[in-house]
Amino acid sequence: MAQQAATKTPAKPETTAAEAAPPKPRRGGKVLLIIVLILVTVLLLAVLGISALLLLRKSGGNSGHDAAAELAAAQQVVVQPPTVDLTKPPVFAPLDPFTVNLRSAEGEDSHYLQAVIALRVADQATAEALKGWMPEIRHRINMLMSAKLASEVQDIKGREALAQEIHDQLNTLLGVPPPPPDTQSLAVGPIRAVLFSSFIVQ
45 with 140, same domain? Predict the structure, then answer.
């Protein structure tokens, strides 16, 4: 009997349900990990945004500076005058005299302008070709001159401005528009110059 009792294995103590379940991870650790990940992401986005902004500002500033430099260079273009070949005299296309009424300012007397104009042209073929355009050429010159006040064409500066306007209008008519207004380059067209042989304002 005693031997039987000795061969019996001792009974294991019963474990409680609380001890048998694996330990639950703490909830606070997960929340802390999520917060750290969010902070790192926000920090990375901020660094990327600042870097992109600095790059854009740097490249934008350079391109603006480059554009301004190019514009300044274009405005300072100096066109060398063509060398004069004395063996080939210039070709002129004389126009019939013009008599136009000038525009009157309020309270001023009316004035009229008599002008004799010659066009310096590229070559003799151009002078011959202009004969076919003569009605429109005369029309445009009449319109330009009759739009002027007497005070606008009484001095040399005003007459030079009128000659330049006629030059640009006629070259545009013949398919060569004038250069942009802020450049010093000269457009080479069939009409090289507009010359007044006579200019009388009365």
Answer: no
* Same domain as 114, residue 58: no
What are the Cα distances from residue 88, in Å, to 83, 130, 185? Answer: 12, 20, 25
Regarding whether 190 and 116 lie in a shared domain, the answer is yes
In sequence order, the 6+-apart residues with CB closer than 8 A to the CB of 165 are 144
Q: Is 75 helix (H, G, I), strand (E, B) or coil?
A: helix
Per-residue pLDDT of the chain (202 residues; tens, 9 = 90+): 545 545 555 555 555 555 555 555 556 667 777 888 888 888 888 888 787 777 766 655 554 555 555 555 555 545 555 566 778 889 999 999 999 999 988 877 899 999 999 999 999 999 999 999 999 999 999 999 999 999 999 999 999 999 999 999 999 999 988 777 766 555 578 999 999 999 999 9
Say if 25 falls within a structural domain. no
In this structure, what are the phi and psi dihedrals at residue 71, rounded to the nearest 5 degrees?
-65, -45
Specify if 58 maps to a domain: yes
Domain that holds residue 172: 91-201
130 and 69 both lie in a single domain: no
